[in-house]
Amino acid sequence: MERIRSRGYAYDNEETSLGVSCVGAPVYNDRDGVIAAVSLAVPTHRFKHKRTEYTAAILEAAHRISRIANRGMGTYTERTDHASKA
Fold first, then answer.
1. What three-state secondary structure class fits 64?
2. 25 contacts 59 by C-beta, under 8 angstroms
3. Of 57, 62, 12, nearest to 36 (Cα)?
4. So where are the chain's domains?
């Protein structure tokens, strides 16, 4: 779990359903508390070839949703984009 927290996303490689892989990232409130999550599930044969792209897209979506959710509620702390390390 610590590795997932530090990099900011998690993978599910056919752990829930055979033939399906996922990537997910948290949505944060203005105090860096997790309030939701976004994820993408695709057939594993597609996921293997586009893992880095999917990870970057989910991280961007989670960051954008966090910013939108926190408008008028304080400053959202930007996180380092870890997608390049995927």
1. helix
2. yes
3. 62
4. 2-71
Residues 24 and 77: their CA atoms lie apart, in Å, by 19
Is 2-71 a domain of CATH 3.40.50.150? no
Residue with tokens 């996921």: 47
SS3 sequence of 17-38: CCCEEEEEEEEECCCCCEEEEE
pLDDT in tens, 30-42: 888 999 999 999 9
Q: Round to whole Å and give the CA distance between 28 and 70.
A: 8
Q: What does the alpha-carbon distance between residue 30 and residue 75 come to, in Å, rounded to a whole number?
A: 6
Q: How far apart are CA 54 and CA 41, in angstroms?
A: 10
- pTM (two decimals): 0.76
Q: Which amino acid, residue 58?
A: I
Quote the Cα angle for 42-80-13, to 5°.
25
